[in-house]
Structures are given as structure tokens and as C-alpha cells.
Design goal:
2 copies of one chain form a homodimer.
Chain A: H1 7-14, H2 18-25, H3 33-46, H4 52-59, E1 64-69, H5 75-90, E2 94-99, H6 104-116, E3 121-125, E4 141-144, E5 155-160, H7 162-175, E6 181-186, H8 191-206, E7 215-219, H9 224-236, E8 244-247, H10 250-262, E9 272-274, H11 280-284, E10 291-294, H12 296-311, E11 320-323, E12 325-328
Parallel strand pairs in A: 1-2, 1-3, 3-4, 4-5, 5-11, 6-7, 6-8, 8-9
Antiparallel strand pairs in A: 10-12
The first copy, chain A, binds a DNA duplex through α2 and α4.
DNA sequence: GTGAAAGCGCTAACAG
DNA sequence: CTGTTAGCGCTTTCAC
């Protein structure tokens, strides 16, 4: 290891027992100020760093939590992670971040690894394969944007009000005069996307539309390129006949924008566009994109709050915590089509 | 812990000693196929997950490396992290990601924490305070975009060819006819920024300019807002008299773009603009921004390659590895000012 | 091919 | 106030 100097070396140098050193390190009392000072000086001088691994082994608790995200290069996820970490650090927890790359196999491997690393709990952002539940069986887990299928022992969900988000985005498109709205979303079986779909349908029906007016395209990936390619395919195939698109994530919206404008279709004149998440790029895009703002700070705080509760085995009064969202109207839904 | 079932439980259930189970888990040989199967079945059935923490304690090696980044919400850094992790996993290493938020105090705390968590080596992206060298004294470390001041025992640097990058960006502005080029950069004492400055000066001098033509503004933060506010301040104060800006990171360039266009200054007609990193937003920005592309895949591979070398205590033939960059010309430097 | 036992660095009774 | 000791889960000699 980096530093072969251990508590034992400190104790012998200080002429005290390792127990005393341990007490001092952990501020557990039962030592004189005098010895404390002497020991601390020696610790400083030697740059001694306590070995948390050994401590964890002994105390059976590691105070570090694993965070699983689908894509570490996505600003939205990382803003969420940032908030979660901030709150967790305050409580003395470390975090392990792991990237699944939207790949189930990687996810399995990485979560397995986390279990071996003895994380004391897990936070799942927009993911979570069901057959992982054997391994993480007893790990307190908070899911974001996902309600697990089977009931786990010790879990809960924190999510944006996705139904409301889907509703607001769709209503904005309808208010701009759209008659034919495409929903572009993920194939992933995640409650977040299902809820946005539900909101979309709700707005449509409320506007007097019917089942025929529901148009959905499912994508395997959430990357910009996935949306771009699908749009291009539809355009080529003459399958594109919409005057509005609601993409359930901003990167998908950006992909649509690129494909459409490259083919001479103007936004917002010909097609209106709305995204979801409110990442920076939507504000700076050639035509700024209307989107749904998710309050990551609020979500991060709720996630940690809930996690601490279920780790303490407190009863959680609600298994699903919802955080409000709001619409951020921009150029891409300006004016009316009429 | 999540799983109180240990190697001991497995061994007693299988009716063998824990030594045998250990050998089987680690495929160390010296056991019959028969017992192997029996033990493996029991492991499966119980969802037994070996405790890497205990293993690490015993073997004195953890196979996990800490990665320190200034800002986890910055796409460029995370693309680099993505590549590094990819290569590291292949070699059987785990990673700890830690965010310093461009704050020295946080950095100190977080790196100290990593040392306590027994990481076996460190990767520093665009950062690294000097007084950390006590703690990380013997940790093999790879720095990205930074050459440490004091010689550490066991380190090396991987970086883009930042001089060349600074040169290319500045030359592009000069080629567009700029006579008065502002360099907007970070105050951070990091070789990466110093080198980009050097490239900027080199291009200026090569074009027949003099010391008087060097104009530099230093920023404390790399955030978009820092550049925006500084630009606004200069504009208000009437200090802005440039026809070209080279921002040493893309987010700074985006901040300039926003401030300038808000004040009615047109890009590229009135002012040309170049950034650095080639993050997505430069391609999608209202006026797409010319930038320097850093080859993150190549860099990630080099970083891991070097890290493995210094961890093996191999002699590293070069302490500084440079990866080429190239210019990505876009709208923001189109046409000439003349 | 298998088991017994020591010990990694640390904490937590317990005894003084 | 301080020291002794057992043991966390695992690997690894050394016997058999």
C-alpha cells in the first residue's frame, strides 16, 4: 500500500498502546490531553493515514454508498450526482460512482463489484435490472425515476413528477397549435418514462384527441445519435408527418433538432419541439429548446434524506417521493402553427 | 453489511475448510473438480459475494485507483474519465471518482479520504495542490494537463499538446484577420493552461506581433458564468476592444458568446471566437464555435498505460506523454474581418 | 487435494 | 486514563 505505516508504528513511537491511539483518532475519550497531543504530533510528523478498510472490516460498516448512473457524460445525471454527493458527504459518507453505459451486462458486473467492495447502500439513477436483486438483496436502495417491479426489503423511490412533466410539455405543444405530436422516448422499462408517456396521453385526451392521435417511437439508447438516426430514417422513409415532437430527454430533442434542420425543416415554424431535463445545451442550442426543468438540488436532498431513513430502518412514511417540475418555454415552441 | 454470509458459512455448508473455498474462489488450483462444483453450487445458491475489503486487507493491495476531477458536470472531464475507466476495468481495476469542485479545501479532504480508502494509485485531471504530496507521497500518480512542481517519487504526466493547441487556435483567429486577440484563461497554476498561453504567444509573434499585442485575462473559475460575468464587466467598463477571443476552455467560450451577443456584438462578424476541448455544446451553439479537439480516447489509453508502468515500478522512458490535438473550424471563425 | 493457523490494521470489550 | 486481547473476512504458508 501507499503507506506501510500503521497504528502500531504510531503507538510504539509514542510509547502508548494501539488502543490509546485508536481512541485518540476516533475521539472516543478516555485519554489525557497530554498523550493526545503527543500522539497527534507523531501522526502529523509521519503523515499517518488511518486505514478505513481495516476499520470497516472490524466495525462492519463502511459508510460508503454506491451510485449507479447510465451515462457519466450526461450533464443531467451528473448534476444529480453532484447534489447527492454533497448531501452524503455532509453525513460522513463516501460515494462510489459507477457507470453502466446503458448496458445491462456492465451494470450487473459493476453492481456486483460494489457489493464486493462492501458499500452500505445503493442509489440507482434511471436504471436497475431486476435480476440484480439477489445480490443487492439486503442493501438499502433508493431508486430515482424507477419503481422496482418486485418489492425489495428495503428501498424507496424518489422521482420528479414525471406525469406532470409529460403533461406540461405536451400541453405546451398543443397550446402552440400542434395537431400531430410525436412522443420520442426510451424503450427502457422505467417508471420515469412510462409516467412521461402517461402525462403526454393525459394532455392529448384533455385536448379532445383520441387514441389515434397517440404516436410513440421507442429508442434503445438515450444518446443524441439515437434520436438523430431515427429521425433521419423516418424522414427518408416518408414516415414523418408531425408538427410537434416531445422528446423525453434533452439529448433526444437535440438529435431531432439536428436531423430536422439538416433536412430543411424549420423549428419552430414547421415543427415545434420540447425536451426534458433542462441541461445547458437546450439553452444554447441554435434554436433554444423548450424543456421540463427537473429540480436536481431538491431531488438530491430527498434522495439522501430517504436513504438515511431506510438505513436507520426507520419506517418510511412514503415509498415514493415526488419532486415538482416546471416548464421552461423557449424558442422551439414559439408562436402558433395555425 | 449487506450480506453477513462469509467464506466461513460457505465452507461449513460444503463441509470443507475455508482454505479450500478460498482456493476455489481465486482459482488457485489444488482442489478436485468435484469439490469445486459442490462449493460453487453453494456459493451460487447463497448469493455469496466475496468481501474485497477483507481480501485487500490481507493481500495489501486493493486494485482500485482514485480519479480526481475539478468538475464532474463538465462533459470534457467525464469523457476523459469514461475512457480511463474503460481501460482500467480491462486490467481489473476499480475506480473511485472524486470531485473537487475546483476548491482546494475539498480537494485536500477528498484526496485524504482516498488515501484512507487505500487506493493503490491516483489520477489527477487538471488539478493537484502541491501540499498534498505528503499524503500521497508514495502513491503512483498520473497527472493530466499538469506537471507537478516538486519531483515526486513515482509519477508522470499525460497531456494534450497544449502548446500546439494554443498555437492552432490563435493562428486560426489570425488567419481570419484578427489584429487584437484576447486570451481568456484560468488562473490555476497548471501546465496545461501555461502551455496554451505559450502557443498563443508563439502564434502572435510568428505573425509579426509584439509583446504589446499580448492580452490576457485570468479567471478564477472555469464555469460558463465566470466568463460571462467577466465579459459583461469589461463591456460595461469599456475595456473590451478586441476582434478575436481565444478561450482556453469551451465553457469559457460559451460564456463569452452569450455576453457578447446579448450586447449586440456579432460573432463572427464583429468578433471571432475559439474555444478548447470540443465538447458537444460548441457544435450546437447558436453560432457553432471553433475549438481544439482533444483526443480523449487516446489520452485515456496513454494514462492507463503509464499508470500500470509506474505501478509496476518499470522505468518510464518519458515522464511526459503528449497527445496530438487538432483544430475544428466552425462558424465562429468564419470569413475575414478585413 | 485438503486443513490448521497466523496475521493484515483496526476497534471494542474488559481489566486494571 | 491506559493496556491486553479477541476477532472482522480473507489469503497463504506449512503440514499432512
Amino acid at each position: 500500500m501507499k503507506n506501510s505505516i500503521s497504528i502500531k508504528d504510531i503507538s510504539s513511537q509514542a510509547g502508548v498502546s494501539i488502543a490509546t491511539v485508536s481512541r485518540i483518532i476516533n475521539k472516543n475519550g478516555r485519554y489525557s490531553q497530554e498523550t493526545e497531543k503527543r500522539v497527534m504530533d507523531i501522526i502529523k510528523k509521519n503523515n499517518y493515514v488511518p486505514n478505513l478498510v481495516a476499520k470497516g472490516l472490524r466495525t462492519q460498516k463502511m459508510k460508503n454508498v454506491g451510485i449507479v448512473v447510465p451515462d457519466i457524460t450526461n450533464e443531467f445525471f451528473m448534476k444529480l450526482v453532484y447534489e447527492i454527493e454533497k448531501n452524503l458527504f455532509q453525513e460522513g459518507y463516501e460515494t462510489f460512482l459507477c457507470n453502466t453505459d446503458e448496458d445491462e451486462d456492465k451494470e450487473r458486473k459493476r453492481v456486483h463489484m460494489m457489493a464486493m467492495q462492501n458499500v452500505c447502500s445503493l442509489i440507482y439513477i434511471a436504471g436497475g435490472i431486476s435480476d440484480m436483486q439477489d445480490v443487492i438483496r439486503d442493501l438499502p436502495t433508493v431508486f430515482i425515476d424507477r419503481v422496482p417491479d418486485k418489492a425489495l426489503g428495503n428501498y424507496c423511490t424518489v422521482e420528479s413528477d414525471n406525469v406532470q412533466g409529460g403533461y406540461l410539455a405536451t400541453k405546451e405543444l398543443l397550446d402552440c397549435g400542434c395537431k400531430n405530436i410525436l412522443l420520442l422516448t426510451s424503450r427502457k422499462k422505467i417508471s420515469g418514462y412510462a409516467d412521461r408517456f402517461e402525462g403526454y396521453v393525459k394532455a392529448l385526451l384533455e385536448a379532445g384527441m383520441e387514441a389515434d392521435d397517440i404516436h410513440v417511437v421507442y429508442l434503445d439508447q438515450l444518446h443524441y445519435a439515437a434520436a438523430y438516426e431515427e429521425m433521419m430514417r423516418m424522414l427518408e422513409a416518408g414516415e414523418f408527418a408531425y408538427d410537434g415532437i416531445f422528446a423525453t430527454s434533452d439529448w433526444l430533442a437535440v438529435g431531432c433538432y439536428k436531423a430536422l434542420t439538416e433536412r430543411g425543416i424549420r423549428i419552430p415554424e414547421d415543427v415545434k419541439l420540447a425536451g426534458y431535463d433542462d441541461i445547458s445545451i437546450t439553452a444554447f442550442n441554435g434554436v433554444p429548446i423548450t424543456t421540463i426543468h427537473q429540480q436536481v438540488d431538491e431531488m438530491g436532498a430527498r434522495v439522501v434524506e430517504q436513504l438515511l431513513k431506510i438505513m436507520r430502518q426507520d419506517k418510511v412514511e412514503q415509498n415514493i417521493v415526488k419532486v415538482p417540475v416546471y416548464l421552461v418555454p423557449r424558442e422551439s415552441t414559439r408562436g402558433t402553427t395555425e
